[in-house]
Design goal:
Strand order of the largest sheet: 3-2-1-4-8-6-9
Number of helices: 13
Helix content: 40-55%
Oligomer: single chain
Number of strands: 12
Radius of gyration: 21 Å
Strand content: 15-25%
Order of helices and strands: HEHEHEHEEHEEHEHHEEHHHHHEE
Largest sheet: 7 strands, mixed
Distance between the termini: 40 Å
Structural class: alpha/beta
Amino acid sequence: MLFSLYFIGWFALLAVSAWVLGRRLAVAPVLGAARPRVSILIAARDEEAAIACCLEAIRNLDYPPELVEVLLGNDGSTDATAAVAEAAMQGYAGTFRVLDIRENLGLARGKANVLAQLARVATSDYFFITDADIAVPASWLRGLLAWTGPGVGIVTGLTLVTGPRLFHRLQGLDWLLSLGLVQVVTDLGQPVTAMGNNMLISREAYEATGGYEALPFSVIEDFELFKAVRARGFGYRNLFRPEVLAESLPIYTWRGLLHQRRRWMLGVEQLPGWLQACLALYGSFYLVLAALAVVAGPGTALAVWAAKAAMQGVLATVCFRRVGRRPPLELLPLFEFYTLALTVSLVLFRLLPLRFEWKGRSYR
């Protein structure tokens, strides 16, 4: 009976998610003819291999470049990040500046410190934040700006991890499925986070929080800012739409992936209890499946596992088609083993008293 209740709840969770995401997309608001001046803020630390691609995408934005200022914070890089960036933006018709970040501002550290200092230099009323390993779409500025309005503090888009190898593609499937679940919760009236590699925040909302220099330090700085903006009464928009879909470089090693996900888990641990319960339901599948194999036999467990893969295929199809991409259904069998290995590894990483690293810095 308990097994039946668990698996009914698990499959209902995915079925509801597929239904919510599969609804017809709302027509995007029309951006007025009067285009505002905007600031793009990028924190970069040892990103010489990625920054040129990021800046090339920004040069290709379908927005008047004279209304765009691009501010890149060089966060103590030990490579040629600044020189590569300067070369990539040579002749840019908009404003481009590289700022060397050498000191901390208030409580801010790491990426939050870089963004705090860039925000102080920015001259527009809209801050667009992305990362050095992200390539935004040409419609990015228009796509996010269209959803601003009175009282809206943050508008966030989404990213898709891309890369040629199987490991990269599995990350892409994993990440878009996760963002799909975030979108479902948001669409049901419970926004939970923003995404700091694809985000617009109004100057009004940012300054109302006191800026990153006034917020408690966190390695998930986007989540900390999101909470502060919401606490001050500003509205929020989360967009799961093709015009705001950016592409992210993958993590290249299993160790790097674990350290990335351990950092994200800090945000999960701060979510409301009911949402943590839903995530626990979702993430405990393999543990309950193993118990089912012992009680009901391996045949029953394999049938349930196959049903899970099929249901995730439905959700993946909905997620990828919603953003205009082909669903990689051929990855689903291997994705099951990838998910199992990642789940077990993260549980062990969380239980052991280990520090994790991000962008060359160590954290607990």
